[in-house]
Structures are given as structure tokens and as C-alpha cells.
Amino acid sequence: xxxxxxxxxxxxxxxxxxxxxxxxxxxxxxxxxxxxxxxxxxxxxxxxxxxxxxxxxxxxxxxxxxxxxxxxxxxxxxxxxxxxxxxxxxxxxxxxxxxxxxxxxxxxxxxxxxxxxxxxxxxxxxxxxxxxxxxxxxxxxxxxxxxxxxxxxxxxxxxxxxxxxxxxxxxxxxxxxxxxxxxxxxxxxxxxxxxxxxxxxxxxxxxxxxxxxxxxxxxxxxxxxxxxxxxxxxxxxxxxxxxxxxxxxxxxxxxxxxxxxxxxxxxxxxxxxxxxxxxxxxxxxxxxxxxxxxxxxxxxxxxxxxxxxxxxxxxxxxxxxxxxxxxxxxxxxxxxxxxxxxxxx
Length: 345
Description:
- 39% of the residues lie in helices and 18% in strands.
- It contains 14 helices and 13 strands.
- A five-stranded mixed sheet has the order 5-6-4-3-13, with helices on both faces.
- Helix 7 crosses helix 11 (229-245).
């Protein structure tokens, strides 16, 4: 996908015909045995010329009402994307416009391409796997003291086909090696294989927190996993902010917030937004609800002048939490619309 100059000189992506064609393979638009001649003709025409103008009269010829509706949604999305000029401009306009009326799958596909484009060539396997969190729902499992994050759809598929309920049962009860189940925990030993993997949804990311050990006499030390998934996610979020907003930040994982002057926070999903709001207001929270908090982060602006004047120099706290079903859907757009910038984008 060719580059186009974006905000602050960063490189943004112009939509290509190849990218538009990928949507024709979605189940909602793919041909089926019952597809009428008009639908087959439209599908073939769009595959040949993805920017083809399609009027209401042509859509009306499709016999199936669902097919007509699906093509209308896709064409509206396509035209808005082409009108925006770049994927980033479209994405920003979408998330800053209030309620998003576009199918989540379309939004996630745009985010997926942007995330993969913004990653540097030397990004680690852990950072590339963490990038998947920005556009694919995840499931969490606590296994032997570790917090493991797996692609929700892949885990659910294995649970259905293999007779297992979640990641923990897959790890504990299966007599087959994880590789045989097409599911692996990403480690330093297998990271090289991740780069060439066709199915990146088959890898689990370790989001285990750093552990603090008290030595007495006021001394303590913190042990951080060498290849922390939380650290990798922090690097990805830094790049996300820089790519869109041309603002340099430093994001670091936290175990807890000890800040009497806590002034600003951003939830990275629905659950963490509500949880951080309650914590900030000082409301008591049940231990079970606190356990839903998968990750905490401290974000600092490299240049405080790029923050709102009343918050300049103060940290921004980020949260990531799972729901009762132990899944989460990270909303990276929250970082773009809720950071306290001096100048709104």
C-alpha cells in the first residue's frame, strides 16, 4: 500500500485496489450458490475495478435483500475511505465523529493495516504479537501464575473442536503438545519462528506483571519478565500515538497507581474505562473486579508543552481490563481522542 504524507510528516497510507478487494472475500460479500446473476456480475466487476461507481439502480437488481444491504454498507465505507485519501485520515474522522456506524470488522481491518505498517522493520516478535491486540479481541487465562493472552476466535475454535473450555484447560489437560494444537506461548526460544508464521493468531502472549520482592529494612527489588508482553504493548502504543498525533510519549507498565495528584487517565477498553473512573473517584471496589485489571501503564509526554496547560508535566495513566468472560477488545482510538493535548487533532 503506497505511502501518503500525513500529519507532522509521518507516513500515512493511501488505500489501494488490492486492499479494497480483500473485503469482497468476507462472508457477507462472498458469492454463494444462491447468488443471482446480478450479484455475480457486481462481484466480478468490483473485483476487476474496486473503485467502480455503483448506483442504486444496479444494487436494486440484486435478488437477495441481505446482499443488497451488505453491498450498500461496503460501498458507503469504500467511498468514505477513498474520500478521506488515507486510511489514517479516515480512521481519525471515524473515531472523532461520535458513534461509529461502520461494522467493527471494517474498522479493525483498517487498524490492522495501519498497525502493521507503523511497526519498524526491527520490531520484535513480541511487539508484532502485541500489535494484534489493537485489532483482534483477546481471551485471558491465568495459568501457573502467568497471565496468558490468546486470540479469542482461535481459542474459542479450539475449545469447540478440541473439547476444551479455555486456554488454561488447553494447557493443562491436553496430552498433545501445544504445537500439535496449533497454539504456542511466544518465548525467546520460538520468537524467530513467529516472524515467518502464516497464522499469527495461533500464538499466546505472556502479559504477566513484574513481581516485587521485599527484602526488609525498606529494601525491595522488582523482577520483570525479560520478554514482557506488557512492555511490548507499551512500545506499540507509543508508536500508535506518534504515528497519528506526531507526539512522542513514553509508556511503561505499572503494578499500581500511587499518585495523590492523579489527574488524568484513559481506559483502553470499556471495562478499564469504568474501573479507572471508579478508582479515581475513590469508590471501593470488590477484589474480584480489581482482578479484571489486566494491565496498568504510565504515559508521559516527551514535551510537556504538547499537553493541555493545566496538565503539563503530569502523567497519564492507562488501563486494560477484561470482562467477566475473561475477554477484552482493546480500543486504540481511545488514545487518539482522550489524551490531554494542547491542540486537538
